[in-house]
Write a structure and sequence with these properties.
Number of helices: 4
Number of strands: 20
Oligomer: single chain
Strand order of the largest sheet: 2-3-4-5-6-7-8-9-11-12-13-16-17-18-19-20
Structural class: mainly beta
Radius of gyration: 22 Å
Order of helices and strands: HHEHEEEEEHEEEEEEEEEEEEEE
Length: 439
Amino acid sequence: MTPRWLVLMAALAVLASAADEARGATAATTADRIAEEPAPVDSADADLPDRFRMIHDEVSEPAEAEPGVWRRAPFGEDLLTDADAWRVGSGVSRVEPLLDYNRVDQLRIGVRYQAQAPDTDFPRLGARLEYPFGRERTLYGIQLEQPLPPRGVLAVGASIVRRTDHSELHQVDDLENTLALLFGRQDYRDYFEREGFGAYLAARIPGISTASVHLRNDRYRSLATRFGTQSWFHRNRDLRSNPPVAEGESRSFRLRLERLAHHTRRTRAGLYHWAELERSGAGLGGDFDYARFLADVRSVLRLSPATTLALRLVTGSALAGDLPPQREFTAGGVDGLRAHAFSQFRGNQVALAQAEYTIGLWRLRTRGLEGGLHAIAFVDAGRAWHHADHVWNPLDQRLAVDGGFGLGTSEDNLRLYLAKNLRDPDSDVVISARLRRPF
């Protein structure tokens, strides 16, 4: 079977899986909405402070444990689902197929397995096994976490991985990136191989965050673009070269904070974050010596039953030493500064602010619920830059500013954006499509 047919079969499988998932999610949500009795109109809803209040779910309360979407900033190994998100209707174990198509691995297939019972003292296990046909190298990941009494407030864990990795600021997932490469011959990530192991201690702070400390040992290797990677359309478009990384071993200490938000049929809002302070080298040894901080804070404000305002703020800074290329910050592309080229800005400092205003174009029957299409207006502002003295000084930078409009389905399964560089009146309009909310 030729590589072309392998790619064709893989892509069809991805499309079929995405369509089934979208139909299932839409049907379930619609059924919930039709079955739900309309809430009585409260005169207090007309008050300005109530209409602009921030709605968020306290994930520590059992009353909020109902089906819905758990929003999280997409960072980390993605081996174990958060215990709160798992608790609602997930059973004891889960097996999921994995599929990706990119310009360094070409077709990559695998399987992911998880087993956990969050309200018990049983250990939580997550594992994945993948094989990239372009590189012919087995990839894997295993994470084991043991809750400690009382009721899993504390937990210890360990993980070991070998994976095709990319910058955490490249936040287009496998499905979206696969379709972009097949249909548009665009790959929205740069890659390297990371192989390593680590241990951690985590403490859950109900309603605030989950704090954890990590010790890690990781080895980085460069990966080359496979220019023979095929696409269905735009076949004459050149693939970007995958940039090399600084190869070597990193031994690091990390302090991390993370919180999820619960989106149910009763609320369309949440507050969630991810922040990490990393110190590599120093007394730990290894080939790199630097300190680095990165934080991503997101929120959704419900302004009315049919309108929302989504916000994202990213800050990052090298606090000491020289960052290797794989740990530098980037800005630009479909996941931030949507009218600029992929990773157009790069450096040891980053600042990015994004806002999206969404309004339902009509309602489902007369129940005050959203349906049909959403109209979107958005603005992105920020950049990445280099500062020799490790100073985070965004006010001294000429920040890029993009803005535009879009349309999205009611369940956010498909979004189309038209973005323009607002600092350049002569710039072209950049069109992009997403299969989910960008943040």
